[in-house]
């Protein structure tokens, strides 16, 4: 819809309807909803495919379209290694044209846990950035997500550059009982613009972002490399975390170790 809003001429709008966006949806009901939504918005539906994204005919059609941007939010926790989230990500990147940008929203586990697909991805594509997202973004589902950004068809080793990692945890939203996560004080637009600017400029800011050369064996997240901005930590923060630790020890049955003087 945003593409249609940004189009200026009828020729541009017609090009969008006939040549993009291109999408794949396996579930018939979700495909019907997507197609209906596009028709109602006047976006067209000619380039929507119903079926598995791994289907050979669909894959061939998408590659022939020479897409320059890919966006995927693959199914989570399928239990089958052949359907691991990173397998979907690799397939998307393989379908893009050289130099295309691939963006994936996946569980944080994909960034920090070892998996053979990480090496397979970096063999042909470049990891540009990973952003750690708010823990409760998908609440009440417990999955903690992150965004991965790649450049397609350029091996990571050939790019030979640092990847950028952003710590995008505090988005200004709060969780409410009946309305979900809401931007209560209207701070989101300012936070969003700041995040976009720091990403575009690959700014390195203590406590917010870091740049690091990584490979398939490394963790792909800011938390692994970011310097802590101790100036932003207040006494209340320390006390809160200490109380949480003590509560955890008590609830886990481990108890709290007493001071040596008290023990004697």
From TrEMBL:
Keyword S-adenosyl-L-methionine: yes
Pfam family, one: N6_Mtase
Gene Ontology biological-process annotations: DNA restriction-modification system; methylation
GO MF term (any one): site-specific DNA-methyltransferase (adenine-specific) activity
Matching InterPro entries: DNA_Adenine_Mtase, DNA_methylase_A-5, SAM-dependent_MTases_sf
Span of domain DNA methylase adenine-specific: 10-247
Protein name: site-specific DNA-methyltransferase (adenine-specific)
């Amino acid at each position: 819809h945003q593409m249609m809003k940004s189009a200026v001429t009828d020729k541009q709008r017609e090009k969008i309807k006939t040549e993009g966006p291109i999408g794949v949806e396996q579930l018939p009901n979700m495909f019907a909803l997507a197609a209906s939504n596009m028709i109602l918005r006047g976006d067209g539906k000619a380039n929507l495919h119903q079926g598995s994204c791994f289907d050979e005919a669909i894959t061939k059609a998408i590659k022939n379209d020479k897409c320059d941007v890919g966006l995927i939010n693959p199914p989570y926790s399928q239990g089958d290694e052949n359907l691991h989230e990173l397998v979907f990500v690799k397939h998307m990147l393989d379908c893009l044209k050289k130099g295309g940008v691939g963006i994936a929203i996946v569980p944080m586990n994909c960034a920090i846990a070892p998996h053979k697909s990480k090496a397979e991805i970096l063999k042909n594509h470049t990891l540009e950035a990973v952003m750690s997202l708010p823990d409760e973004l998908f609440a009440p589902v417990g999955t903690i997500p992150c965004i991965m950004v790649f450049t397609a068809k350029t091996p990571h080793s050939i790019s030979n550059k640092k990847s950028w990692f952003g710590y995008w945890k505090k988005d200004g939203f709060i969780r409410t009982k009946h309305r979900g996560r809401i931007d209560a004080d209207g701070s989101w637009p300012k936070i969003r613009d700041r995040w976009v600017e720091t990403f575009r400029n690959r700014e390195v800011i203590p406590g917010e972002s870091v740049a690091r050369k990584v490979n398939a064996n490394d963790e792909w997240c800011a938390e692994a490399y970011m310097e802590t901005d101790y100036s932003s930590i207040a006494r209340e923060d320390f006390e809160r975390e200490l109380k949480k630790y003590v509560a955890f020890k008590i609830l886990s049955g481990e108890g709290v170790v007493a001071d040596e003087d008290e023990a004697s």
